[in-house]
Write the structure tokens for this entry.
Amino acid sequence: MNIQEAKDSIRDAVTSYLSRDRSGRYTIPRQRQRPLVIMGPPGLGKTAIMSQIASELDIGYVGYAMTHHTRQSAIGLPKIETVLFDGVETAVTRYTMSEIVASVYDEMERSGKREGILFVDEINCVSETLSAAMLDLLQNKKLGPHRIPDGWVLVAAGNPPEYNSSAREFDVATSDRVRLIEVEPDADVWLRYATNSGIHDAVRYYLSVKPGSLLSMENTPEGPRFATPRSWEDLSTVMKEHDRLGLTVELGLISQYIRDPDIAAEFKRYLDFHRKYGEEHDVGSILEGNASGSSMSSADAEERLAVMSVIVGRLNSEAEEGLMLEKVRDMLSSIDTDDVDGSVSRIRETISADATGGDLSRASSMCLNALADVGRTRGDVESAVRDVVQQCRSHLETFDFHVTNAMEFVGNSGGHGPVPLLSSLLGCYSVVMYSKPDGPLYGYNEELLSEGRDKKLEKAMGVSV
């Protein structure tokens, strides 16, 4: 299955494991809650989806990479205790609590959430000294003598041996105690994610034309050659910063991330095409309504795709910015003007607590910056709210104006008309969430896609609809 299907499957499994009967007991008892093991090539986003699932289900989350652990940190340190056996004092070995299990209790204390996901990455890449402990973890949901708390679902991930020389196959005894979810790369799914995540337009353009390059692994006499979704995403981040700073992206930089010389060289050629098409078709002028669709009348499919990728990327970025502004507006509006300092402090704590793994989203960072700028009086807060409300209104009007101009440009440029652009925009989470029911996106959706459904129905029935 692809990564989106895997995410849906894991979310459903966690939901079923945490369902309770009328007496409050878990419907599926602990011993029947098989750990979930997601197995697939590196860089597909296996780790990323786990915190997303926990956030969507509003449960706790603790993640660990097992290759960073020793036997002592995984199962605890030995300590000597004196106990009485049949009236005789005897020294026995006990173990301190596993660092991993202790982290679950720490998260429960911090978040107040009694249920959650314990995610253990690289489960099949541990050293020989830890392999027995991992088997015990999967079979009995404990590390050493310490059990994972009830209400915490164990999810593990790993790479098949063909992608990692230190990885091992599970034996039958282990495989028979887990729910194995095998994940394969799916370029269409990744490209939807890439659009929502703001992956560089040129990367999305290239992988739309060459989807097989999303994940490529080859062992050669000179060493492994590879490209992974993770490497494309990391390259995208650096490329966007180079664009911001006015720096060029050369083959040498690309090859530091895309470790297949042929793919790296091919992407550099497509990057040059993408830049050329972007210069010939000024997307800024398109969005402002100052470009004629006739300029694309002679463009081939790849040129149209390049221009479309830039348009979608720009509109998605505008939608993200609009959603951030709305979050800032809502946050400032929630400040108690009779207790500004206390209210601001509580909001800061909430934002920081919601940051997964210590990382703040752009929206959270923007909120914190807004809190730093707002004053400490009722008038300061009310003025800040008025300003951001006006910014929200102006930004939405500009966004709707740009959507309309982009759709008209593509509609007048020949080819397949505006439907491909509309479909791409409808695949962007931020665009859909930011658009309002009375805005142009909904209007085009009703006009174009409903019209298409009517035509299909008419053709199927042989009558006019």
